[in-house]
Amino acid sequence: MLGIIGLGLQAQLWLSDNGYRKTVKLRAAVEDQRALNEVLRARNAALDAEVVNLKQGRDAAEERARTDLGMIGKQETFFQVVPVADSSR
Q1: pLDDT digits (tens, 9 = 90+) for 8-56
Q2: By residue range, what is the domain housing residue 51?
Q3: How big, in percent rounded to 5, are the helix, strand and coil portions of the chain?
Q4: Residues 27, 21 contacting (CB under 8 angstroms)
């Protein structure tokens, strides 16, 4: 009788949806989430550093204005090079 109960418990442990297979799947999901969290932590650290740089220095704000908004300084001249249209078409 005890053997049958033990066999039933083993079958439930290894073959049921809430048994060992689910544990393995959940462990893999936890590892995937941990890896994603590390990537996001690194991204957040970079963004934090950029925020500190923007708050403390004028150079970072000027660089951001140049690249994102296309602004130029007071003593600078903007040159735009336009490619020549091909007349053979």
Answers
A1: 777 777 777 777 888 889 999 999 999 999 999 999 999 999 888 878 8
A2: 17-69
A3: 70, 0, 30
A4: no
